[in-house]
Design goal:
single chain; 52 residues; 65% helix
Length: 52
Amino acid sequence: MSIGTLLLIVLIILLIGAVPTWPHSQSWGYAPSGALGLVLVVVIILLVLGRI
């Protein structure tokens, strides 16, 4: 397993965990998952281009 694949798996898990379902995080909106989604897209693009 390469470091890129491991990083992709960790980012997907963080993206799922950032969805505001807990009472203390409902006021955050979708900002945490949106930011992690952006990071995930960048990592996927870098994986496709072979930079990672």
